[in-house]
Design brief:
Length: about 325
């Protein structure tokens, strides 16, 4: 007759196995539904394809820069690594995680928002990184910021506690039915996700006071240092916004921009102030005041690609 200790051990092993099976099933269905971001993170953190231009940033990068247009004009291979909602903390993580797997790009284009320099060191959505802990940079960063620590590291089923009930039920059912997170009529290409044909269909949100904190400044210098050590040309970009609304209306917005401009000048980094482009006065190019629609992304990608190409040609002289 088996001892009580042995029965407990067997029960534990069976429970662990069942939990792993449940987690594998649910996480697989979630990744099938969150198709766009899962494929993007797979490319960034697991693949090793060489890209000569890497675009970093938040939703403005994600929705505004079409790599196919950049590739054609620059004669390059580019990838859009923009992720909605993130700040410099995650942009640094993405750059380091990318470099851990990929050959060094020639150029990194960092599109920043006024809020990028707040110094926040928290994840906008930590769980989207969970499937990519095989990348040591991702794993170390999640662990050091308590986003994936303790029992969650060893019992994957516990990671599902970070998902809402909607994620664990409705999304799984949608995935089983063959649906994904790419809206009908939209498309993805090398990290870019199109942002509809709608024109100014969202009301402007109230704008918080902005500032460049010491931590935010340090994160920017961290990215500058990474690029210098790897001999990467860094370009800073402030993306289009309708009628410069954030710079004009956000408290301290101009102060933040002046700080970035001073840093770029001291460090010899190109800063493109693309909120000053003519297209920023034409609402037909905007989905909302801060993001371009499909038509705007096509036009802006052409402009940005020519700016990058012109700068690189000057550097080669």
């Amino acid at each position: 007759m088996r001892s009580p200790l042995l029965r407990i051990l067997w029960a534990f092993m069976i429970a662990l196995l069942v939990s792993q099976v449940v987690y594998s099933f649910v996480s697989h269905r979630l990744s099938r539904y969150e198709l766009h971001m899962h494929q993007k993170f797979s490319e960034l953190f697991s693949d090793s394809t060489h890209y000569s231009i890497l675009f970093l940033g938040s939703s403005k990068t994600h929705a505004d820069i079409h790599p196919a247009i950049v590739d054609t004009i620059c004669g390059a291979t580019s990838y859009n690594a923009g992720v909605d909602g993130i700040s410099l903390f995650e942009e640094k993580l993405i750059l380091e995680g990318y470099l851990a797997r990929h050959p060094v790009p020639r150029v990194v284009v960092l599109s920043f928002d006024l809020h990028s320099f707040s110094g926040a060191r928290n994840f906008f959505n930590a769980k989207q990184y969970f499937p990519f802990v095989a990348n040591k940079v991702v794993d170390t960063t999640l662990a050091s910021h308590q986003a994936l620590s303790g029992l969650k590291r060893f019992v994957p089923l516990l990671r599902l506690s970070d998902y809402s009930d909607d994620d664990k039920t409705v999304v799984v059912l949608k995935s089983l039915a063959g649906h994904n997170d790419i809206p009908q009529g939209e498309f993805q290409y090398k990290g870019y996700l199109s942002n509809s044909d709608h024109v100014m269909d969202e009301a402007p949100k109230s704008l918080d006071s902005q500032k460049m904190t010491p931590v935010g400044r340090a994160l920017l210098y961290d990215i500058i240092g990474i690029c210098r050590r790897r001999n990467i040309t860094l370009i800073l970009v402030y993306s289009p916004e309708y009628q410069q609304i954030f710079l004009r209306q956000a408290p301290n917005g101009k102060t933040v921009m002046d700080s970035v401009q001073n840093i770029a000048g001291r460090e010899g980094i190109l800063l493109l102030r693309n909120e000053q482009l003519a297209l920023c006065n034409d609402e037909q190019y905007f989905r909302n005041v801060g993001h371009l629609n499909k038509r705007g992304a096509i036009l802006y990608s052409e402009i940005l690609a020519r700016q990058i190409n012109h700068y690189l040609q000057q550097q080669n002289r």
